[in-house]
Amino acid sequence: MNEDRTAIAHIELVTHRYRAVVALDNVSLEIPAGKMVGIIGPDGAGKSTLLGIIAGARRIQSGQVNVFGGDLKDAEHRRLICPRIAYMPQGLGRNLYPDLTVQENIEFFARLFEQAKEAREKRITELLDSTGLAAFRDRPDKNLSGGMRQKLGLCCALIHDPDLLILDEPTTGVDPLSRRQFWDLIGRMRGRHPGMSVLVATAYMEEAARFDHLVAMFAGFWGRKSDGHPGPKLMAQGLMILAALVEDRQLAARAAAQATFGPKRSRKPG
Ligand code: ADP
Ligand code: MG
Questions:
Q1: Ligand number nearest to the C-alpha of 218
Q2: 93, 103, 166, 217: which sits with the fewest CB atoms below 10 Å from its CB?
Q3: 7-258 belongs to which CATH class?
Q4: pLDDT of the residue at 226
């Protein structure tokens, strides 16, 4: 396999439509390897569509998508690389079974990846310890708090030690403390697996400063101009996007403090 060590994914001229809606319009970008890459943009910008495509979960309608050095349209390549990718879709706990306990949820995912019993148990213990979920092994998912469900979702995604971790709005709907803890946890996980690339979609602008590399998606942003947002906020959003494009993380974070994209989110945790 001719794998590019500097980029984990190349996307070229990718267009994706849902009937009349153009979610991705000739998008071309490169996702650097071994980095924490943030995709920032308002609701409707196309973040989830793009992540689903890179994860191999969404069919490619047009354009070229190369991940780990091969074409994702190639079924054989997809089969080979999918075990190297972990994908946590948008929506807290979407990858979990509410009636299964913490332990049962993780075991379910471990079996999917056909891990041997001993390796499986070692990995489960390691993940439960590092996320602080060990004391809640026997609690059903549906009785966990938002922050705990988010961590359980992460454990399930990480069970097979992926090279690429894709997180779609992992911190939406969890309280600020849990959000901070979540990022600390991701930092520790990366420390343990230094080559791991992490690709994250977020609508929280203040998270911009956490990433090594930023991609700003703003198709929806221009569409929202008519929603009657006050001028100064729009200016701050524009500055944010500009800062993201020139990869000035400090400027992005400062601008983010004044900008909020779209309607304020008040989704309840859990
Ligand atoms: P984001 O994750 O940035 O909010 P999405 O990729 O979810 O963006 O959506 C991009 C655009 O595509 C939006 O206008 C959204 O309404 C539309 N869209 C997304 N999924 C579907 C779908 N399954 N059917 C129809 N339209 C969709
Ligand atoms: Mg989304």
A1: 1
A2: 103
A3: alpha beta
A4: 37
Query: Please, how many CA atoms are within 13 Å of residue 44, restricted to the half-sphere of its CB?
Result: 11
Q: Which tokens hold the place of 78?
A: 């997809």
Concatenating the DSSP letter of every residue in 159-224 gives TT--SEEEEESTTTTS-HHHHHHHHHHHHHHHHHSTT-EEEEEES-GGGGGG-SEEEE--HHHHHG
Distance from the alpha carbon of residue 61 to the mean position of ligand 1, in angstroms: 15
Domain ranges of the chain: 7-258
Residue with tokens 């056909």: 114
For the question of whether the overall pTM of this predicted structure is more than 0.85, the answer is: no
Distance 138 CA to ligand 2 centre (A): 31
Instruction: Quote the ligand 1 centre to 116 CA distance (angstroms).
Output: 39
List ligand 1's pocket residues with C-beta within 6 A: 18, 21, 23, 41, 43-49
Q: CA-to-CA distance for 169 and 201, rounded, in angstroms?
A: 5
